[in-house]
């Protein structure tokens, strides 16, 4: 029970627990063995029982050795296994068991990097196996032990160990010759620095032992890695002769090509390839796998020459590859090959040969983006704009379809985007800007790489700006619209921030922001485009870290966007402007927020932004008939420094169709007039205009509007006008005086018709008071009006008397 429990603990990877039970089991068995020994002299049943006890003891001792090994107690394991080894003289049938146990200990020690311990246990395994040939492990097992021992010696990396390794592997091959043993022998010979003759003998032994072709080729690679080049090529030739009739001979031939290429022996390599081509069509056809490997090597060699601009040499290597394709064969790889050949022909200025190659490409793979790219390159070379445009359109269409790499060689995941980028570059190099723009637009539409798209957009922006500089007025607007579209795409891509750092995003946003700003300044005659560019500039600036300079830019963008929107509304007064005006208000509100942030960073006492924002807001709300309009006017009046021009502008806006706010207009005019009068030097002309507008707004235009408070208000304005005239009678415009006279007289007549005689007399008298301020017109108007005034006074007296008599 103790031994079984100990074994179980070992299996559970708990050697400490196992030790106590195994030790108890050994003690019990040794006690029992002593008792059996002292029992009846050599009785048969006692001898049999002693044998059983020894057998159990051997098993438990091997378990103790296993436990000691797992705990790193190698010396204890050696002691236990020595006892087992001594017991094998009485228990020969357990020879194989103990030998294999030692072999396992050797493996464990090797895995732990304890090469010396591993060599000891593997040697013990072999020595124990020789103790009793009848019950020893099979020869295959002995050979396996010896090969492992040779490997351990080989890794010890000293000359003495190499000699032991060679001895071990020779013994292994004597015990049981195998492929692994023969290959290991070559490794040992190479590591020990054996002469070519000794190694050649080992190689011949391999060939005589019918070693598989793959092992022979691995041996060639081993020789090359150990700098035995001449011996490697010699052995490879022997291998090719030995396997001359094998269907896998092509694998060896391809390896020969590979090694020649690695060593830079191009001339020999070309001769060998020509021999392989001849053999391929005369009964020694390469397998599909070997042929694929050869194509890859040939293409790789050709591409390196192409990169180094050795186009003729590159073409020769591609032609070698072409020799393995049959005439009329349809294969995507053949299409690729012909495209590569066409590229070489183009570089060599052999256009006709390039066209022939592309004809083959179109036959083999007409729906490939690479095919259309090749067609495109030739079209550009021929300056065939129409065909180049068709090819770019086809590339853009095919770019939407994922590129499959099944059964093809060297396909890039980003092939579509890279080809469109390259197409644009080729067009620019050949001064075909329209085609370049088509290619770049397709790239922007199909590429998933935002950084690549932004680079393409930069190119497009530069190209369209160049076009705008050269174009006339008839195409200018169309080009500006195209530019706007590019900038919107840039805004969308930068906003994603998918595969770009914050620094990259900031740089891109800044670049496109400045373009949008400068483009807006070129749109003075087109308010809608100006607004769109300024809005885009503001949106792009939001993707940059905020600072004072940036906030100033944002404020200006929003102000200009609002101004452009209002200008657009002024140019089309009869259209529905609700959407535009609402948009203008949105720009103004955001600008207020930016402006408030900006004012915290410094002194802006001289900045007109407050005034401009209130002006724009007043105009937008006036045209929207917004009830908050009066609040805006109050805000203007509360400004620390209000310019009279601002108030006059607000007055005009209040009455500009479709707006009609006479009360607010008069309020602004009164405030403007008041400010004018406070000036050190009064501007009489502007004061006169204010009074003129106030009178015009206030005078009754019909019977229903004649009210006492209205007349009283207008009378005050007339008195204001008289005071202005009195202050500078020579500077007051005569026609303005005449207008005041006429309107006062007409008001008097209107009141007369309404039988308001006292008021009529008053207003007609007011009109007469202006006559003395007339210049050249004074005499004629004085005569006419004096007669009329006398008439009116007579009629007024009669009317008054008649009215008294009736009472």
Automatic annotation (TrEMBL):
<dbReference type="Pfam" id="PF08631">
    <property type="entry name" value="SPO22"/>
</dbReference>
<protein>
    <recommendedName>
        <fullName>Protein ZIP4 homolog</fullName>
    </recommendedName>
</protein>
<dbReference type="InterPro" id="IPR013940">
    <property type="entry name" value="Spo22/ZIP4/TEX11"/>
</dbReference>
<keyword id="KW-0469">Meiosis</keyword>
<dbReference type="InterPro" id="IPR011990">
    <property type="entry name" value="TPR-like_helical_dom_sf"/>
</dbReference>
<dbReference type="GO" id="GO:0051321">
    <property type="term" value="P:meiotic cell cycle"/>
</dbReference>
<dbReference type="InterPro" id="IPR019734">
    <property type="entry name" value="TPR_rpt"/>
</dbReference>
């Amino acid at each position: 029970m103790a031994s079984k429990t100990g074994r179980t603990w070992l299996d559970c990877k708990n050697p400490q627990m196992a030790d106590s039970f195994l030790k108890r089991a050994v003690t019990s068995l040794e006690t029992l063995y002593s008792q059996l020994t002292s029992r009846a002299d050599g009785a048969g049943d006692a001898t049999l029982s002693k044998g059983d006890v020894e057998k159990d003891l051997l098993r438990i001792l091997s378990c103790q050795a296993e436990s000691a090994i797992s705990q790193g107690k190698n010396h204890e394991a050696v002691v236990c296994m020595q006892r087992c080894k001594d017991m094998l003289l009485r228990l020969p049938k357990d020879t194989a068991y103990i030998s294999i146990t030692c072999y396992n200990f050797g493996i464990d020690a090797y895995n732990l990097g304890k090469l010396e311990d591993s060599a000891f246990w593997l040697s013990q395994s072999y020595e124990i196996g020789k103790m009793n040939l009848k019950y020893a492990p099979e020869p295959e097992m002995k050979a396996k032990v010896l090969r492992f021992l040779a490997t351990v010696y080989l890794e010890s990396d000293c000359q003495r160990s190499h000699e032991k390794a060679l001895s071990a592997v020779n013994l292994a091959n004597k015990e049981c010759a195998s492929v692994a043993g023969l290959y290991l022998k070559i490794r040992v010979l190479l590591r020990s620095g054996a002469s070519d003759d000794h190694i050649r003998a080992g190689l011949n032994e391999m060939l005589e032992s019918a070693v598989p072709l793959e092992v022979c080729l691995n041996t060639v690679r081993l020789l090359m890695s150990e700098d035995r080049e001449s011996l490697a090529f010699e052995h490879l030739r022997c291998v090719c002769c030995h396997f001359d009739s094998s269907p896998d001979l092509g694998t060896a031939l391809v390896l020969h090509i590979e090694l020649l290429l690695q060593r830079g022996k191009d001339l020999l390599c070309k001769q060998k390839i020509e021999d392989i081509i001849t053999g391929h069509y005369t009964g020694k056809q390469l397998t599909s796998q070997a042929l694929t490997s050869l194509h890859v090597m040939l293409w790789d060699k050709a591409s390196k020459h192409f990169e180094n601009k050795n186009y003729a040499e590159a073409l020769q290597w591609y032609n070698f590859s072409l020799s393995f394709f049959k005439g009329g064969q349809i294969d995507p790889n053949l299409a690729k090959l012909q495209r590569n050949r066409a590229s070489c022909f183009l570089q060599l200025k052999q256009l006709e040969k390039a066209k022939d190659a592309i004809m083959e490409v179109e036959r083999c793979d007409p729906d490939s983006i690479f095919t259309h790219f090749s067609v495109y390159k030739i079209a550009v070379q021929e300056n065939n704009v129409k065909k180049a445009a068709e090819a770019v359109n086809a590339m853009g269409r095919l770019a939407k379809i994922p590129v499959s790499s099944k059964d093809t060689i060297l396909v890039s995941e980003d092939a579509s985007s890279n080809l469109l980028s390259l197409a644009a570059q080729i067009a620019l190099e050949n001064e075909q800007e329209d085609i370049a723009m088509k290619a770049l637009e397709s790239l922007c539409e199909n590429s998933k790489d935002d950084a690549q798209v932004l680079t393409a957009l930069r190119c497009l922006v530069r190209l369209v700006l160049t076009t705008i500089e050269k174009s006339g007025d008839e195409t200018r607007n169309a080009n500006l619209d195209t530019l706007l579209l590019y900038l919107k795409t840039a805004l969308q891509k930068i906003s994603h921030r998918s595969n770009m750092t914050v620094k990259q995003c900031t740089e891109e946003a800044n670049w496109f922001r400045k373009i949008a700003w400068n483009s807006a300044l070129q749109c003075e005659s087109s308010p809608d485009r100006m607004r769109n560019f300024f809005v885009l500039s503001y949106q792009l600036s939001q993707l940059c870290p905020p600072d004072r300079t940036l906030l100033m830019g944002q404020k200006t963008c929003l102000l200009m966007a609002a101004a452009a929107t209002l200008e657009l509304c002024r140019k089309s007064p009869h259209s529905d402007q609700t959407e535009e005006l609402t948009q203008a208000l949105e720009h103004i509100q955001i600008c207020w927020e930016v402006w408030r942030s900006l004012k915290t960073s410094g002194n802006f006492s001289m900045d007109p932004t407050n005034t401009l924002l209130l002006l724009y807001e007043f105009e937008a709300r006036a045209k929207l008939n917004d009830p908050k309009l009066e609040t805006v006017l109050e805000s203007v009046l509360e400004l620390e420094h209000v310019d009279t021009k601002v108030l006059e502008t607000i007055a005009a806006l209040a009455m500009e169709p479709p707006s009609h706010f006479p009360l607010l207009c008069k309020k602004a005019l009164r405030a403007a007039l008041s400010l004018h009068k406070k000036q050190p030097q009064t501007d009489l002309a502007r004061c006169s205009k204010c009074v003129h507008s106030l009178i015009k707004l206030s005078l009754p235009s019909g019977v229903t509007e004649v009210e006492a408070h209205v007349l009283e208000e207008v009378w005050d304005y007339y008195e204001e006008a008289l005071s202005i005239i009195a202050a500078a009678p020579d500077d007051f415009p005569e026609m303005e005086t005449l207008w005041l006279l006429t309107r006062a007289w007409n008001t008097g007549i209107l009141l007369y018709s309404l039988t308001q005689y006292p008021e009529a007399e008053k207003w007609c008298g007011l009109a007469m008071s202006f006559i003395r301020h007339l210049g050249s017109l004074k005499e004629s108007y004085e005569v006419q009006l004096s007669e009329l005034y006398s008439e009116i006074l007579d009629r007024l007296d009669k009317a008054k008397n008649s009215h008294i008599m009736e009472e």
